[in-house]
Amino acid sequence: MQIQDLLFSQGFGTRRVCAGLVQQGLVQVNGQVLSEPAQPVQPQGLRYSVQGVQWLFQERAYLMLHKPAGYECSRKPGAWPSIYTLLPSPLRQRGGGAAAGVQAVGRLDQDTTGLLLLSDDGKFIHRMTSPRHHVPKVYEIVARHPVDARQLDRLLAGVVLEDHDQPVRAADCMLTGSHTLRLTLTEGKYHQVKRMVAAVGNRVEQLHRSRMGDLSLPADLAVGQWRWLEPGDLRALDGVKDPTEDPTGQ
Ligand code: URA
Predict the structure, then answer these.
(1) What is residue 207's three-state secondary structure?
(2) Which DSSP string do the residues of 4-50 spell out, in sequence order?
(3) Among candidates 135, 190, 192, 182, which has minimal Cα distance to 158?
(4) Distance separating alpha carbons of residues 149 and 162, to the nearest angstrom
(5) Distance CA 5, CA 16 (A)
């Protein structure tokens, strides 16, 4: 692959912009400045830098963001800034075309914090968000009123939300303090946690997603920071399989 095409695939701009970056001496591979846009490179495992910033070639992008409160998970937000402004521009542009860049794997409300995955792999996004895959999502809740055993029982037994015929229930639910609880959902309906807690007579004051599948938000990932998912992170999510998929991969 030519270096200009590799830069294009990784979101550094149009082919012309990418050729220009090379011609201006802004791209380095193995500590060497490249000057020829058509220079062939081996993409797999390639470490390169653009304007002094180090990158590793990624065929597909998988990352996690510690979502802060006050950000919307939309590309065209209303009142609040978009979470996409927290990512460097190559991640927002990679792949080119209309649906370019990484997409949030499901959405968190503007005031919700915590683990948000992003990817440009449509199959991965589908596997993580499709209701039939039952990916467990763990939420830490601060409630306005004390939480009692009856409320927990009702969350586990199922509550009816106004726009759903079938009750929705927590896959797991436990008290973590007088006003705090940890609730696990395997589906993701609109404002589901807030509406479930309201349905049992309480109110969510703060909501934080701490885990998806077996992947926890790392304690050292600061609010507003992102990082690539590592192979171990993807394995932690890999328990999330389509039950109808042929295990042989055929
Ligand atoms: N449920 C909610 O109510 N809000 C979120 O952001 C996520 C789950």
Answers:
(1) strand
(2) HHHHHHTTSSSHHHHHHHHHTT-EEETTEEP--TT-B---TT-EEEE
(3) 192
(4) 24
(5) 10
User: Using CA atoms in the order 107, 113, 119, 125, what is the torsion angle rounded to 10 degrees?
Assistant: -40
pLDDT tens digits, 170-217? 999 999 999 999 999 998 889 999 999 999 999 999 999 999 999 999
Q: For the segment 52-89, what is each residue's pLDDT rounded down to a tens digit?
A: 999 999 999 999 999 999 999 999 888 999 999 999 99
**Residue-range domains of the chain with CATH:** 3-56 (3.10.290.10), 62-131+214-235 (3.30.70.580), 136-212 (3.30.70.1560)
Give CA 150 to chain center in angstroms.
33
Residues 6+ apart with CB under 8 A from 9: 1, 94, 95
Report d(CA 192, CA 196) in Å as an integer: 6
113 CB near ligand 1 (under 6 Å): no
* Mutation pick for ligand 1 pocket among 189, 207, 210 (CB with most ligand atoms within 8 Å): 207
Contact between 120 and 87 under an 8 Å Cβ cutoff? The reply is no
Q: For atom 7 of ligand 1, which residue has the closest CA?
A: 108
AA letter at 19: A
> What residue type is assigned to position 223 of the chain?
V
Cβ-proximal residues to 119 (8 Å cutoff; 6+ apart), any chain: 60, 61, 62, 63, 102, 103, 105, 125
